[in-house]
Protein backbone atom coordinates (compact mmCIF):
# COMPACT_ATOMS: atom_id res chain seq x y z
CA UNK A 1 0.00 0.00 0.00
CA UNK A 2 2.83 2.40 0.76
CA UNK A 3 4.28 1.96 -2.73
CA UNK A 4 0.87 2.57 -4.31
CA UNK A 5 0.48 5.65 -2.13
CA UNK A 6 3.86 6.94 -3.29
CA UNK A 7 2.90 6.39 -6.93
CA UNK A 8 -0.36 8.30 -6.57
CA UNK A 9 1.38 11.15 -4.76
CA UNK A 10 4.11 11.25 -7.42
CA UNK A 11 1.58 11.49 -10.26
CA UNK A 12 -0.35 14.13 -8.32
CA UNK A 13 2.89 16.05 -7.85
CA UNK A 14 3.45 16.18 -11.60
CA UNK A 15 0.03 17.74 -11.99
CA UNK A 16 0.81 20.14 -9.16
CA UNK A 17 4.05 21.24 -10.80
CA UNK A 18 2.21 21.85 -14.08
CA UNK A 19 -0.47 23.86 -12.27
CA UNK A 20 2.15 25.88 -10.37
CA UNK A 21 4.06 26.62 -13.57
CA UNK A 22 0.86 27.81 -15.22
CA UNK A 23 0.05 30.07 -12.27
CA UNK A 24 3.56 31.53 -12.22
CA UNK A 25 3.20 32.32 -15.94
CA UNK A 26 -0.24 33.87 -15.28
CA UNK A 27 -1.87 31.28 -17.53
CA UNK A 28 -5.33 29.95 -16.78
CA UNK A 29 -5.25 26.72 -14.81
CA UNK A 30 -7.70 24.11 -16.14
CA UNK A 31 -10.19 23.03 -13.51
CA UNK A 32 -9.99 19.47 -14.85
CA UNK A 33 -6.26 19.32 -14.13
CA UNK A 34 -6.74 20.78 -10.66
CA UNK A 35 -9.49 18.26 -9.88
CA UNK A 36 -7.39 15.38 -11.20
CA UNK A 37 -4.44 16.57 -9.10
CA UNK A 38 -6.63 16.67 -5.99
CA UNK A 39 -8.25 13.32 -6.70
CA UNK A 40 -4.91 11.59 -7.18
CA UNK A 41 -3.54 13.12 -3.98
CA UNK A 42 -6.71 12.15 -2.07
CA UNK A 43 -6.29 8.59 -3.30
CA UNK A 44 -2.71 8.67 -2.04
CA UNK A 45 -3.94 9.80 1.38
CA UNK A 46 -6.54 7.01 1.52
CA UNK A 47 -3.92 4.42 0.55
CA UNK A 48 -1.57 5.79 3.20
CA UNK A 49 -4.35 5.58 5.81
CA UNK A 50 -5.05 1.96 4.84
CA UNK A 51 -1.36 1.12 5.00
CA UNK A 52 -1.11 2.66 8.44
CA UNK A 53 -4.26 0.85 9.63
CA UNK A 54 -2.77 -2.56 8.85
CA UNK A 55 0.76 -1.61 9.94
CA UNK A 56 1.96 -3.40 13.06
CA UNK A 57 4.84 -1.03 13.81
CA UNK A 58 4.10 2.23 12.07
CA UNK A 59 6.75 4.85 12.53
CA UNK A 60 6.27 8.40 13.67
CA UNK A 61 7.64 9.40 10.27
CA UNK A 62 4.56 7.92 8.58
CA UNK A 63 2.28 9.72 11.02
CA UNK A 64 4.10 13.00 10.37
CA UNK A 65 3.82 12.46 6.61
CA UNK A 66 0.11 11.78 6.93
CA UNK A 67 -0.47 14.89 9.04
CA UNK A 68 1.44 17.06 6.57
CA UNK A 69 -0.46 15.56 3.63
CA UNK A 70 -3.74 16.29 5.40
CA UNK A 71 -2.73 19.90 6.07
CA UNK A 72 -1.64 20.27 2.44
CA UNK A 73 -4.95 18.74 1.34
CA UNK A 74 -6.88 21.20 3.49
CA UNK A 75 -4.92 24.01 1.85
CA UNK A 76 -5.71 22.59 -1.57
CA UNK A 77 -9.42 22.41 -0.81
CA UNK A 78 -9.30 25.95 0.53
CA UNK A 79 -7.58 27.18 -2.64
CA UNK A 80 -10.14 25.40 -4.81
CA UNK A 81 -13.14 26.79 -2.94
CA UNK A 82 -11.91 30.27 -2.05
CA UNK A 83 -10.10 31.09 -5.27
CA UNK A 84 -10.48 28.73 -8.21
CA UNK A 85 -14.23 28.19 -7.97
CA UNK A 86 -14.78 31.92 -7.49
CA UNK A 87 -12.52 32.80 -10.45
CA UNK A 88 -10.11 34.70 -8.18
CA UNK A 89 -6.37 34.82 -8.69
CA UNK A 90 -4.62 32.19 -6.62
CA UNK A 91 -2.05 33.78 -4.26
CA UNK A 92 1.41 32.50 -5.13
CA UNK A 93 2.61 32.28 -1.48
CA UNK A 94 -0.39 30.09 -0.59
CA UNK A 95 0.26 27.87 -3.60
CA UNK A 96 3.94 27.55 -2.69
CA UNK A 97 3.11 26.74 0.94
CA UNK A 98 0.69 24.02 -0.23
CA UNK A 99 3.30 22.53 -2.51
CA UNK A 100 6.08 22.77 0.06
CA UNK A 101 4.05 20.90 2.68
CA UNK A 102 3.22 18.19 0.18
CA UNK A 103 6.87 17.86 -0.90
CA UNK A 104 8.06 17.56 2.71
CA UNK A 105 5.36 14.95 3.41
CA UNK A 106 6.32 13.06 0.25
CA UNK A 107 9.99 13.03 1.22
CA UNK A 108 9.12 11.77 4.70
CA UNK A 109 7.01 8.98 3.21
CA UNK A 110 9.70 8.11 0.70
CA UNK A 111 12.40 8.07 3.39
CA UNK A 112 10.32 5.61 5.45
CA UNK A 113 9.77 3.29 2.52
CA UNK A 114 13.34 3.47 1.21
CA UNK A 115 14.70 3.22 4.75
CA UNK A 116 16.99 6.24 4.67
3D structure, described in words:
- This protein is mostly helical.
- Helix content is 82%, strand content 0%.
- It is built from 4 helices and no strands.
- It has helices at 2-24, 31-54, 60-84, 92-114.
- Helix 1 (2-24) runs antiparallel to helix 2 (31-54), helix 2 (31-54) runs antiparallel to helix 3 (60-84) and helix 3 (60-84) runs antiparallel to helix 4.
- The longest helix has 25 residues, at 60-84.
The DSSP helix count reads 4
Radius of gyration: 14 Å
Quantity of strands, as a count: 0
Helix content: over 70%
Q: What is the string of SSEs from the N terminus onward?
A: HHHH
* Structural class estimated from helices and strands: mainly alpha
Arithmetic mean pLDDT: 94
Identify the overall geometry.
elongated
Query: Which percent band covers the strand fraction?
Result: under 5%
Residue windows where pLDDT falls under 50 for at least 5 positions: none
> Main β-sheet: number of strands, strand sense, barrel status?
none
Distance between the termini: 19 Å
How would you briefly describe this protein structure?
This protein is mainly α. 82% of the residues lie in helices and 0% in strands.
Task: Give the arrangement of secondary structure elements.
Blueprint: H1 2-24, H2 31-54, H3 60-84, H4 92-114
Keywords for this entry:
116 residues, mainly alpha, 4 helices
Amino acid sequence: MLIASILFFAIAAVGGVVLAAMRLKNQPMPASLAMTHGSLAATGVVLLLIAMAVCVKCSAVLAAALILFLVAAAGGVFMAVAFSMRKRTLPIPLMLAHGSLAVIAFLLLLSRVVGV
